[in-house]
Amino acid sequence: MRSTDVDELRGRLTSALAPVTGASVALSGSLSRGDFRTRDGQVVSDLDLIPVIRSEADAGPVRAQLAPVLRSLSDDSGLTVSAAITLADNFFRVRHAAYVTSMATRPFISDPLGLQAHLDGLPERASESVLPWLAQPVAYYLAKSGFAGREENIGKAVGALRRLLAEPELAHTIGAPADDPTGDVPPSDLTALYQVCTAALGTLAADHGVRLLPSSAEFLARAAEGDTGEATFRAVRDRAFLENQGLPFELSCLTARPTPASDRSQ
Q: Is the four-CA dihedral 154, 243, 115, 12 of positive or negative sign?
């Protein structure tokens, strides 16, 4: 997909998602925020969709409806297309989750369940603390860095930590503006960046009383024991999906990658 085609994306998605009748589908991620990555004029960020369903019983039928749509979207756009099926109760409750805060004000590109009207009636900002939700992606990307894409995911963890440290609520919680421990670390020193990000999460929980979500606490417990591999990532990921989507990863997540040109001709 060319970067010049992004303005037409919502309309194209609405048409493509017409066969999906069991979920209202919202656009999330960098293509929703507008900070997507490009290379030589082509979009290289993933296309992230959040299909919202009313009950867990709807997940199976919606997966069946979504699978061919995601495949077609991926082949047509040349992008990896991901969907995280989400229970409506979770979507409306976890207003500080990163996948929610990255959405536009009116995120639904297909809304057969009529969920936008309910979203419009919610308070602008949830009353619960934002800090555990800002800490969640730091732990998630640190955990993922031990399994795949070490440089990319540590970079994402650093970015998430900086957003956490810049949150005004944190300054109020700790009594002073928070210093960025990654500022003096060379970007190439991935081990040091991993360590300072992990230590910062531990300090928030142990010294400042920030009650981390179970996924973040799971990461810190495993990291303290030196367990930084695939098992840790899967454990953190599974808890994060339950926190965010209200569904197990295997029931929630669908991904389609572009079919290689050589395979399309067969």
A: positive
Residue type, 97: A
The CA distance from 74 to 130, in Å, is 33
What is the sign, positive or negative, of the torsion defined by CA atoms of 51, 53, 56, 59?
Answer: negative
CB contact at 8 A, 15 and 50 = no
Instruction: List, for residues 7-16, the tens digit of each pLDDT value.
Output: 788 888 899 9
| Cα-only R_g, the chain | 19
The whole-angstrom separation of Cα 230 and Cα 233 is 5
**What is the rounded average pLDDT of the residues 113-136?**
90
Q: Which residues of 144-161 are buried (b: 16+ CB within 10 A; e: fewer)?
A: bbbbeeeeebbbbbbebb
Of the chain, the percentage scoring pLDDT greater than 90 comes to 72
